[in-house]
Amino acid sequence: xxxIAWDQYFMAQSHLLALRSTCTRLMVGATIVRDKRIIAGGxxxxxxxxxxxxxxxxxxxxxxxxxxxHAEANALLQCAKFGVPTDGAxxxxxxxxxxxxxxxxxQSGIKNLFYAEDYKNHPYAVQLxxxxxxxxxxxxxxDAVVDTKFAEKNAFVHELMEKLxxxxxxxxxxxTMKAEAxxxxxxxxxxx
Length: 192
Ligand SMILES: [Zn+2]
Ligand SMILES: [Zn+2]
Fold this sequence. Notes:
The protein is built from 7 helices and 9 strands; from the N terminus they run αβββαβββαβαβαβαα. It is of the alpha/beta class. It binds zinc ion (ZN) (2 copies).
């Protein structure tokens, strides 16, 4: 049986973490891996106990939300909190890291960076990774373990269903299609 590739497995984990982000300006997830083991994970979020951007709106200064700790930093800080070494570890992130996170990843001894999407890749960040000998590799998430287009697909199917209402389709055919959509998108069993 074909199993999910390691890089896809870790990248999927980062996308899962991103879904927990509390700042919707950019939903980012980061997974730190050593010897093919996940040792920490983080997402964009407020300091523990503070309000969330998704509830109160972002705290924007100079065009940046200052409330959140970035995903990469949160993953590294989790290691600091629990005393887990990060030297020589790999990191899987949903987006290319910002300058601050780049510096923190390098200082933590991260040796390989895998990212799914380019994001304003700063030339200085690219330069710093090169100088530090950190290998960077783009690994787009290809497996549908985490369906990043779920909301779009859901909206599309609903639009189709509305269009069907206006067409000359028998109610029986429509019900069959609706049941299939429910099964595919909401895991609802077919009711016979
Ligand atoms: Zn925010
Ligand atoms: Zn960052």
